[in-house]
């Protein structure tokens, strides 16, 4: 017996030396030359060396203080401003239960199987340890870790490690002794059972009992307890869900150990071991709270603060008081879910198997090619076309792909402009399905919600809201033979229009002229000062129409700056941090505001934005009971990819974005507009806040005393703003198709009216253009062939068709008549929050529309100039392509990357 033991020890030494290759190479000749006597001396010296090494490991293993802190580990709590729990920061999905609340069957099964002398030893069971060494030396490896040693591994996996090595076993033993000095035996059992993992994101015996048997740990039977304890040897290998036969064999081993150590009678053992495993399996999702995206956004900052102040957010029981108002947050959650569900009905109809979601649709084929399943199939050697056709014919795959691509997404954020407190934050319809945050992470084109920054820059330069520009076709040279011709959903009135009305009615023709006068650099500078500080803003003319992607958080912050009189404050999320005993560790006051925009200029811009709510594209908020002094702006981007709405009050600012994660998926031309998709979300929350007196109805934006209109009028005159003509209502004429007046570009095509570029509720909706507000520029055919924008094949299959332009309803290849009849209009639904289609249209299907080909965005370093006329006036030209209308297509548009 001694010879095999000595041989085993020598082999162990050789394996240990082999673990250090460099040292082994140097020691191997010396070891080979040792005599038997020298070997015996080396073996005798081994315990001394081992003891010295253990002494060296003591300061390198977790300290008693770390163990005691881990013993009372408590997660950080996130509280709302009114004291409601928003979230908890935990290391894992577990619920701690006291030992007395755990079934005795679990404790008996655990001790009998894992460590039957648990209450007799102190950290290490030497009899079992030497037995394990003996069996291992003889080629029959056997575990010898006690429950305390296993707990050491579970509590400090990084410090101790998982490798099968002597070094790990020694660290484990040292830490186990430290644990025994800090915990009682019952506390060790309780901690062990609450920290051990059981797969499926279930940590601890309580979550395991709920996951596998849908009951609390206190009610586990002998069979159920034996099944869970049996998993501890190898949770995946003995997983009762995936491997029921193995799990049953292991369970019976646990029952045998219980019988052997007197915890189960012979009769019960014989009866129970014959029974199968009966599960009631259900994954236990971790509770996310009412503001999960907010908690996720705050986590990174809080970890940095805790590290800098020597705290642990997962263990120290911090209490973080946030600025979230639980009432506003709940209203926002409800509004997002309600509007998202209603819009999803429309999206499902538009992208059904009978409409756009077909195997022949090039866009659907692109979705398949971009999928991970397709890429893996090609990587495995399958032919690309065969892989594509196989997946297109796979009903389950296509259904899952459609559900992923056509899921409507919504983001919402609200702030108090007086102190920059974040009141509500909703990053998606469902955090469990859509953890991506559409408030702070998603960057999308803001469309016309960016226009107030253009007019703000003009006011900074001395313009007045009453200054007038001609509402007519605009032609702005970009250089290189290209021109920027922004259009609206309806024809220009060819009448002077005030800047205030240009903003209220979201007129691209007016906004483009203002941008050309002010310059994109000043607009971008103002937007950054107001709060758009993280996203890159291109200093190009098309920035006026919101072509640079930004986040919803940035837009709400910028509008909050305007509502605060031009004083910028970064959003405030936390007001106080305390420990678990209530001791204040830190307090955070709102920062002093930075002057982003002069208060007088800010008030003039706010006054202009009132028109958006009282008569313009945001008029629909009144239907939700929103009353008082509110300002705002709608926004819709190309092909209805993004719908926006921003709303501001002296006490409250909110904004919403609606769209899809893939911007190639869109809603129709009615529900895709910001006034119909995003406005209901913001208006519903604003109205609820007003009813709860969180927003004071009598509060108004006040004009600052130092506002000097004379100076502004002087600067306006010097800069060339203004016109003596009287302004007219741009929607005084019926929304009929009209030919543009002949201004030297014969063959100009007519354009069509758009519902969002007019006050909501004023007349019918009329035929619809390619976007909600006509926010996209149109190119004319002056550039050389090398400069001509390239059209993607799936958008215009027929290269003989005209490129950019607009379409007349019912137009064929023949030129449009000079005096077409007025277009018929379908009235908008009485309640914009409902999901029913406009009157006369089947639910879930878009109304009949005609699309033109539009371009977005346009970039050029050249600012366009007005074209002088014979009478010395300033006329902004616009030309449209002549000839035939573009084909009716849901993929109208040229991407920015396609413009040379």
UniProtKB/TrEMBL annotation:
Chief localization: membrane
Transmembrane region(s): 39-61
Chain intervals with Low complexity compositional bias: 773-794, 803-843, 852-868
Pathway membership: Cell wall biogenesis; peptidoglycan biosynthesis
Region Disordered, residue ranges: 725-900
Amino acid composition bias (Polar residues), ranges on this chain: 881-891
Organism the protein comes from: Comamonas squillarum
Keywords, in A-Z order: Carboxypeptidase, Cell membrane, Cell shape, Cell wall biogenesis/degradation, Glycosyltransferase, Hydrolase, Membrane, Multifunctional enzyme, Peptidoglycan synthesis, Protease, Transferase, Transmembrane, Transmembrane helix
Substrates-to-products reaction catalysed: [GlcNAc-(1->4)-Mur2Ac(oyl-L-Ala-gamma-D-Glu-L-Lys-D-Ala-D-Ala)](n)-di-trans,octa-cis-undecaprenyl diphosphate + beta-D-GlcNAc-(1->4)-Mur2Ac(oyl-L-Ala-gamma-D-Glu-L-Lys-D-Ala-D-Ala)-di-trans,octa-cis-undecaprenyl diphosphate = [GlcNAc-(1->4)-Mur2Ac(oyl-L-Ala-gamma-D-Glu-L-Lys-D-Ala-D-Ala)](n+1)-di-trans,octa-cis-undecaprenyl diphosphate + di-trans,octa-cis-undecaprenyl diphosphate + H(+); Preferential cleavage: (Ac)2-L-Lys-D-Ala-|-D-Ala. Also transpeptidation of peptidyl-alanyl moieties that are N-acyl substituents of D-alanine
InterPro entries: Beta-lactam/transpept-like, Glyco_trans_51, Glycosyltr_51/Transpeptidase, Lysozyme-like_dom_sf, PBP_transglycosylase, PCN-bd_Tpept
Domain Penicillin-binding protein transpeptidase: residue ranges: 411-640
Domain of life of the source: Bacteria
Record-stated family: In the N-terminal section; belongs to the glycosyltransferase 51 family. In the C-terminal section; belongs to the transpeptidase family.
Protein name as catalogued: Transglycosylase domain-containing protein
């Amino acid at each position: 017996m001694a010879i095999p033991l000595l041989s085993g020890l020598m082999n162990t030494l050789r394996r240990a030396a082999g673990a250090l290759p460099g040292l082994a190479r140097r020691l191997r000749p010396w070891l080979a030359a040792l005599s038997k006597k020298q070997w015996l001396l080396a073996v005798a010296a081994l315990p001394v060396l081992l003891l010295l090494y253990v002494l060296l490991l003591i300061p390198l293993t977790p300290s008693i203080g770390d163990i005691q802190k881990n013993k009372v580990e408590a997660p950080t709590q996130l509280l709302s401003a009114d004291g409601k729990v928003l979230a908890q920061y935990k290391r894992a999905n577990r619920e701690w239960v006291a030992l007395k609340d755990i079934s005795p069957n679990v404790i008996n099964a655990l001790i009998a199987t894992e460590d039957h002398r648990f209450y007799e030893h102190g950290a290490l069971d030497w009899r079992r340890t030497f037995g394990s060494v003996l069996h291992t030396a003889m080629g029959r490896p056997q575990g010898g870790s006690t429950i305390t040693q296993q707990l050491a591994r579970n509590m400090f996996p990084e410090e101790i490690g998982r490798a099968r090595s002597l070094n790990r076993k020694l660290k484990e033993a040292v830490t186990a002794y430290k644990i025994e000095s800090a915990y009682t035996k019952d506390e060790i059992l309780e901690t062990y059972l609450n920290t051990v993992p059981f797969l499926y994101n279930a940590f601890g015996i309580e979550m395991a009992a709920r996951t596998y048997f849908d009951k609390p740990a206190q009610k586990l039977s002998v069979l159920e307890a034996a099944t869970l304890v049996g998993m501890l040897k190898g949770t995946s290998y003995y997983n009762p869900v995936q491997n029921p036969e193995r799990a049953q064999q292991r369970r019976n081993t646990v029952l045998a150990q219980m019988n052997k150590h007197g915890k189960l009678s012979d009769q019960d053992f014989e009866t129970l071991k014959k029974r199968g495993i009966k599960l009631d399996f259900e994954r236990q999702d971790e509770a996310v709270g009412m503001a999960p995206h907010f908690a996720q956004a705050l986590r990174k900052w809080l970890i940095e603060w805790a590290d800098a102040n020597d705290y642990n957010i997962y263990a120290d029981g911090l209490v973080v008081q946030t600025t979230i108002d639980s009432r506003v947050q709940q209203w926002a959650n409800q509004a997002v879910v309600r509007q998202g569900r209603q819009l999803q009905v429309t999206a499902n109809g538009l992208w059904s198997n009978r409409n756009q979601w077909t195997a022949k649709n090039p866009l659907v084929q692109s979705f398949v090619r971009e999928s991970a399943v397709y890429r893996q199939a090609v990587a495995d050697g399958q032919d690309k076309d065969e892989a594509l056709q196989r997946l297109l014919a796979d009903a389950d795959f296509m259904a899952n792909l459609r559900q992923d691509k056509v899921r409507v997404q919504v983001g919402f954020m609200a702030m108090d402009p007086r102190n920059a407190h974040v009141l509500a934050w909703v990053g998606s319809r469902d955090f469990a399905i859509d953890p991506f945050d559409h408030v702070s992470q998603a960057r999308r084109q803001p469309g016309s919600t960016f226009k107030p920054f253009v007019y703000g820059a003009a006011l900074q330069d001395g313009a007045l809201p009453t200054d007038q520009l001609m509402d007519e076709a605009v032609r702005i040279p970009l250089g290189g033979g290209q021109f920027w011709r922004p259009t609206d959903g309806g024809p220009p009135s060819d009448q002077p229009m005030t800047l205030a009305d240009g903003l209220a009615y979201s007129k691209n023709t007016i906004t483009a002229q203002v941008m050309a006068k002010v310059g994109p650099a000043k607009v971008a500078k103002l937007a950054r000062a107001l709060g758009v500080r993280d996203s890159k803003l291109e200093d190009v003319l098309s920035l006026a129409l919101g072509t640079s992607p930004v986040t919803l958080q940035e837009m709400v912050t910028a509008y909050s700056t305007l509502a605060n009189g031009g004083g910028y404050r970064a959003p405030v999320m936390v007001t106080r941090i305390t420990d678990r005993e209530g001791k204040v560790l830190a307090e955070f006051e709102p920062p002093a505001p930075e002057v982003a925009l002069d208060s007088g200029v800010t008030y003039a811009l706010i006054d202009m934005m009132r028109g958006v709510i009282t008569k313009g594209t945001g008029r629909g908020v009144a239907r939700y009971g929103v009353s008082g002094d509110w300002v705002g702006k709608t926004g819709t981007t190309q092909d209805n990819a993004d719908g926006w709405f921003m709303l501001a009050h002296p006490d409250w600012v909110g904004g919403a974005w609606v769209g899809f994660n893939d911007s190639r998926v869109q809603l129709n031309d009615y529900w895709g507009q910001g006034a119909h998709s995003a406005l209901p979300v913001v208006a519903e929350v604003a109205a609820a806040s007003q009813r709860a007196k969180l927003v004071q109805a009598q509060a108004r934006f006040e004009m600052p005393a130092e506002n000097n209109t004379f100076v502004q009028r002087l600067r306006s005159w010097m800069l060339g703003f203004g016109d003596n003509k009287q302004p007219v209502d741009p929607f005084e004429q019926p929304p009929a198709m009209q030919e543009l007046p002949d201004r030297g570009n014969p063959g100009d095509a007519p354009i069509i009216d758009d519902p969002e570029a007019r006050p909501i509720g004023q007349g019918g909706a009329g035929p619809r253009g390619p976007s909600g507000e006509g926010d996209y520029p149109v190119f004319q055919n002056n550039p050389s062939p090398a400069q001509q924008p390239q059209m993607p094949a799936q958008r215009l299959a027929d290269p003989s068709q005209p490129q950019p332009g607009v379409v007349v309803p019912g137009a064929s290849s023949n030129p449009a008549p000079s005096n077409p009849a007025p277009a018929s209009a379908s009235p908008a639904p009485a309640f914009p929050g409902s999901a029913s289609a406009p009157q006369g249209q089947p639910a879930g299907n878009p109304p009949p529309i005609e699309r033109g080909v539009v371009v977005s965005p346009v970039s050029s370093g050249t600012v366009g100039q007005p074209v002088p006329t014979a009478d010395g006036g300033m006329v902004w030209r616009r030309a449209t392509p002549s000839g035939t209308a573009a084909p009716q297509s849901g993929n109208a548009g040229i991407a920015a990357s396609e413009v040379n």
